[in-house]
Amino acid sequence: MADHSGMVEKRGFGLWMTHLGLIIGLLFVFFPIWLALVASTVTQADIMDPPMPLLPGEHFFENYRKALVSGINAPVAWMMVNSMIMALGIAFGKIVISLLSAFAIVYFRFPGRRTFFWLIFLTLMLPVEVRIVPTYEVVAGFGMLNSYSGLIFPLIASATATFLFRQFFMTVPDELAEAARVDGASPMQFFRDILLPMSRTNIAALFVILFIYGWNQYLWPLLITTDPSMNTIVMGIKQMFPSGDDFADWPVIMATSILAMIPPVIVVVGMQRLFIRGLVDSEK
Amino acid sequence: MATVKLDSLKKSFGKTEVIHGVDIDIKDGEFIVIVGPSGCGKSTLLRMVAGLETVTSGEVQIGGAVVNDREPMDRDIAMVFQNYALYPHMSVFDNMAYGLKIAGTPKADIIERVDTAAKLLQLQPYLKRRPRELSGGQRQRVAMGRAIVRKPSVFLFDEPLSNLDAKLRVQMRLEIKQLQRRLGVTSLYVTHDQVEAMTLADRMIVMNGGVADQIGAPLEVYANPATEFVAGFIGSPPTNFVNADLAGIRNGEAAKLGVRPEHLTVLPTGSGRLEARVMYTEALGAETLVHLELADGAMITARRSATEASAPEGTEVGLDWQDRDEMLFDHTGKRC
Question: Which CATH number fits domain B4-232: 3.30.450.40, 3.40.50.300, 1.10.8.60, 3.30.110.40?
Answer without folding.
Answer: 3.40.50.300
